[in-house]
Amino acid sequence: MSPQIVVVPASTKAGRETIRQLLESEGSTPQVRGIYRDPSKAPVEFTQHPRFEAKQGDVSSGTGLDFGSADAVFYIPPPTFDGTDQGEWAARCAEHVKHAIREAPSVKRLLLLSAMGAQHDHGIGLLCLNHISDKILRDAAQDVIMVRPGFFQEFFGTALEMAKADPPVVYSWSTPIDHKIPMVSLKDIAKACTKVLLADSESVKQMPHDFKIVGPRSYSSRDLKDAVEQVTGKAVELQLVERDQLAGYVRQETPEPHVGEIVEFLEACLPGGVIDGEAELGENTVVGEIELVDALRGLHATA
Ligand SMILES: NC(=O)c1ccc[n+]([C@@H]2O[C@H](COP(=O)([O-])OP(=O)(O)OC[C@H]3O[C@@H](n4cnc5c(N)ncnc54)[C@H](OP(=O)(O)O)[C@@H]3O)[C@@H](O)[C@H]2O)c1
């Protein structure tokens, strides 16, 4: 029988790419249910697919979380930036997901998107979202598998936008210039997630239930500049945002109540920070194939 898989929230970056790969998977024909706050946001490439359905649901209110008849659920904790305390939000959403799994006895597997460094209970800023979600959901299904990516390479797509300035400039908070941080493409993450979601119940037991995922290597600000120059074909100036400038930099794009948690998160990625300490590749690490320059090239091509 074809496995039935729920992805929630389906509009998240990792959710969207995993749905795409589930629907493209060869040899397996999963039925995929994507839960959206607004189902009209489901991409046409999905809604036209015979094995996909879009449903309305909201993890913060708990409405519409119908996991009935599903075998596996992929939950991606969404961050909030509306002034709500991130920890309270994480707990509320995770409790709703846990309740919905309890109401659907067919669900035997929960794949939970977490993050590198989210095991720590302090010094991780925004990642308290994942720390709390992990804690609440660690026993929510027969098999709970946590995947911990490094930074999404596509997150640095903003550098392509900055490079449109005249003269082209890229700001980067990763200092010093050659400090490398772990990054991974959404395609590599989705590939690993698809493998977990489609594995049969015996194979899943053999898999690590808590694993990191990183790209083929880590990247520095200098690497980011080089990648942007390769993709755009233009020379760009690199402007480093030093530690004492982080709050002002983050404040440009982030609502005030969330500035502190983002700054703490970025500091955790800098030398000596909690997440920097996670960069060692351990036994349970999946190493992806896609280079930063190729992830940026993909974004540039679709922009
Ligand atoms: N970004 C990274 O580099 C990175 C790295 C490692 C781990 N992670 C983890 O990945 C997760 C996603 O982070 P992200 O920043 O990349 O966010 P994201 O995937 O862009 O997800 C945000 C989306 O979730 C949807 N959403 C928000 N609240 C919802 C609700 N109550 N019910 C249903 N859908 C809701 C919203 O879509 P609509 O507005 O369309 O409803 C929103 O656009 C986080 O847990 C994060 O820690 C991220």
Topology:
Elements: E1 4-8, H1 13-24, E2 31-36, H2 44-47, E3 52-56, E4 72-75, H3 86-102, E5 109-113, H4 128-137, E6 143-149, E7 151-152, H5 158-162, E8 169-172, E9 183-184, H6 186-198, H7 201-206, E10 210-214, H8 221-232, E11 237-240, H9 246-251, H10 259-269, E12 285-287, H11 292-302
Parallel strand pairs: 1-2, 1-4, 2-3, 4-5, 5-6, 6-10, 7-9, 8-11, 10-12
Helix pairs in contact: 1-6, 3-4, 8-11
The protein binds NADP nicotinamide-adenine-dinucleotide phosphate.
NADP nicotinamide-adenine-dinucleotide phosphate binds at residues 9, 11-14, 37-38, 41, 58-60, 76-79, 113, 115, 127, 129-130, 149, 151-152, 155.
Overall description:
With 303 residues, this protein is of the alpha/beta class. The protein has a domain at 4-150 and 184-213 and 280-288: Rossmann fold (3-Layer(aba) Sandwich). Helices cover 35% and strands 17% of the residues. It has helices at residues 13-24, 44-47, 86-102, 128-137, 158-162, 186-198, 201-206, 221-232, 246-251, 259-269, 292-302, and strands spanning 4-8, 31-36, 52-56, 72-75, 109-113, 143-149, 151-152, 169-172, 183-184, 210-214, 237-240, 285-287. Strands 3-2-1-4-5-6-10-12 form an eight-stranded parallel beta sheet, sandwiched between helices. The longest helix is centred in the first third of the chain and has 17 residues, at 86-102. The model has no long low-confidence stretch (mean pLDDT 96). The site of NADP nicotinamide-adenine-dinucleotide phosphate has 24 residues, from helix 1, helix 4 and strand 7.
